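Changelog-adjacent note: as of this version, every example in the card shows the full chain rather than a window. The one below runs 444 residues end to end.
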Amino acid sequence: MTALVEETLDGTNRGSTDSTRKSQIKKRRTPSDATNNNTDIDPVNQQLIGIDGKWYDVTSFIPHHPGGEIIKLFAGKDASAVFRGFHERDVLKNRKPVGQYTRDCSQKIHKAFADLHLYFQHEGYFKTSLQWYAVKVIITFTLLLTSIYLVVSCQEWHYHYLGAVFLAAFWQQNGFFMHDAMHTQIFHNRWIDNWLGTFFGTACFGISGSWWRDEHFYHHALVNTIDSVNNQRLDPQMQEPIWAQNKKLCRFYQTYIQYLFIKIQHITFIPVCVFIGRIGITIDSFKQERRIHELLAGLIHWTWVLLLVLQLPTLREKLIFYGIASSCEGILHIQLLVSHYAKPFFDLDKISTSLDWYEMQIKSNINIVCPEWLDWFHGGLNFHIEHHLYPLMPRHNYRRASRHIKRVCHELGLEYDECPWSTAIVRTLRCLRQMSIHFKLDPR
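Full-length structure tokens:
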């Protein structure tokens, strides 16, 4: 988000995160909590992934994995939960297991949410209503047509600026469509949904959809996670060079400029999200983007946006119009962050070992309580717990699924954290304030 200040603060930029992350992954050796039933194999060093009691050799598949090299971080571990979260079962139909392992049968949390996954599959919760999406797309593009009408057909400045608000709403909703498509929630076909994600995300919303998808895979698999061994943050969408929302992140900030920003982070959080958020994420997404289809889609976006803005009579109105649209869309960045910022952070070594993956997802998310008619404003992500547990589930089924997930959490003694949006913002600001007091440059 804050690409404008990122290079100054830490001497790097988010664009270099991928290469850094790959080098750190290669160093990693993770112990497994699963009991290996085959003494002639080494699940970690042989790059074996455990799924439902069977080891699969993914060594040759890693360069082709759509989710990137994150798969290496689960080598030697039981990755059944994260596998179900991102894949249909039939992706294993052409792969033969190379060994077996025995799961810890005492893991009640894993079994409960794995059983719930099967229930949702059987009851059709993962099926998409294309009619529902068609209606949403029509409404969303009506927002754009309204913006165009107010700019082109009206003479008064206040109608022009109202058009900017409608443009911001159009951007916001396309951000949600991009999110759904890149999770293959719409057609459940990676090729079709990725192209839709580029259309909604890059051509309509204005950020590289593929860049966002690549980062989002890490965010989902290892939300709010750090690697203490290699001293690295693993969730790229929960890190900014000017905010330290958890004490486990303090080690990553070592400059006096960062110290100054963190001391006022509870003050700058909302203004940065609103006024800099769109500019920052746009720069982040394109500064190292080299995929031709994303660059062409980005060109399409800026062509239609410039054509719209150029209809305004004066330079002053043009600048104010885009500023209003950009700032109103900045609300989306607040929406995306308050579901995680006030929640705990975890260490990689504990994930899928002493801490079940399902449990991590529940503990690192906040749901937003709102009436059903307001789900459109949050893009379904007001049910963030449901989404992180079952990323392939279409968002129009979250509200129904939430009743079952809330019941299971109650039975297992897990907190199902939900609150109004305003409360989530206050909790985030309080967390940032607390960390600003706690933070010191002195490592002692």
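Structural remarks: Residues 1-17, 19-33 have pLDDT under 50 and may be disordered.
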